[in-house]
Amino acid sequence: MNKNIIYIGLALVVGLGLGFVFFGHTESQILTESHNHEIGESSEKWTCSMHPQIVRDEAGSCPICGMALIPIAIDSDGLTAQQFKLTKHAMALANIETTTIGEASSDDIQLQLSGTIQVNDDEIFIQPAHFNGRIEKLYVTSVGQKVNKGQLVAKIYSPALLSAQQELITAYKMKGSQPELYKAVRNKFKNWMIHDAQLNAIETSGTVINPFQIYSHVSGTVSEISAKEGDHVMDGKAIFKVANLNTVWAEFDAYENQISALQVGQTVAISAKAYPNRIITSKITFIDPILNASTRTVTVRAVLNNSDHLFKPGMFVEGAIIRMQTINTNKLTIPASAVMWTGKRSVVYLKANVDEPVFEMREIDLGTKQGDTYEVLDGVDVGDVIVTHGTFTVDAAAQLKGKASMMNTNETSKTTAAVIETKSMTSEKFKDVPEVFQKELESVLYLYLNLKDQLVDSDLKSAKLQADLLLARLNTITTESISNHPKMMKDWKTISEQMKTDLVTIQNEDNLKSFRSQFSTISLDLIQLIEKYGVPIQVYVQFCPMANTNKGGYWLSLSEEILNPYYGAAMLGCGENDKIL
Q: Where is the CusB-like beta-barrel domain (predicted)?
């Protein structure tokens, strides 16, 4: 009996022990754990595995792709909200290199400028009509035509010249008795630039010449035609203009932050895309004292010897200032490879801890680009250590960790697009352009936009097809509506021919990178045409400073949304709206 009681007691003790093990949590403990669990959940951050720039305080769906958000691991190593740490293994795989910022030296550095070849205005000459009349026949019919001194250029009907010839014939017959009268009549023809051979023919034949032949007293390449057959001309009015292309101007656009590094007399090394292995040196002869308010640039000019006629007006050129004359040795410079661009922002990654792979993003203000370096106005100091190789890898790591990066400025960034101020061009300048011609140019624009969209999709095969269609359309543009506007015709021929050449070149590009590089020149061609003639729709000029190995690249769009054709999905939103046409 006593043994049974002992066994029952032992069973109760064991049962209570097991019950405590499995069910021994009190209600207060359960509530506490539940409360702590809720606190842990509320402190978590959530992101998208495909779009790490998206960071939210609670679970949900990605506003870009719709995928379910995943939790972000909270840093536990005491780093600031802007800092993150890479493992040594990740550092080695990414081949990350850093540089300590120091002061600029006074070694030779270069300032790169872009520009075009222009006609030397100092070498433009006018062939005028020296008497009143009507053009019966004009032999100078196209811009670009070569004219030599003494060449027959026109036949003109002139009532005043007819009566003067009759007077000359009469005076010639009275030459023996009234030599002074004969001399005065003949001198009148010299004032009209009539050749002696023509006067002699009138005197000996006794017959007036009608219409009268006009011979050129200038030589050069026709740059403008101011009259056509049937027009009435007046004494002194220009029939055409010729340019001596033995010298040309290389005109560059210099931005505000580059002006202080420029001065007249500096040596500039000039190269053209058409002759990549040929460098011509010249001197800066002119710096425009007036800033262009719309482009924020000034014109910098150099005169080139062009006796071999290599340089054609309208040709794109690049200039490098071989040695800058004044260098502030207190300026900070950093390698261009360290800078990342997104819209108007330029950022670098600093190594926050010299002994540990801890990094943080820093926005900086840049000054002049000097060769392969940038002057830094604000954001970093002497002694700071910055990433110069592997910056994209570091940026990707920052995004994955939910830290400030190139794509998002802080860890709680939303997807709202930044509002970029744009500069609008007035349509007043296009009022004289025929609407039918603007429609022609609009059709070119739409084919260009198709080409741009294929580059956004990184589809080289389709992009080449669109380039072929664009070239075909450009070749069929009719210019009848602007045929009575010599300046418009001149500009159209110069720019459109350059664009055709660039489109032929792009057809030979066999890889996407080089194709995109050539696309930037085609974009500049079309921008020039639209700026000259306008189109009946609103067009955005957009710019990516990182394109073409940090040289920058423009493109056109009908929307202010940035869809980058130079990088496609890799950096689709990189760029800014520059202006509206």
A: 247-319
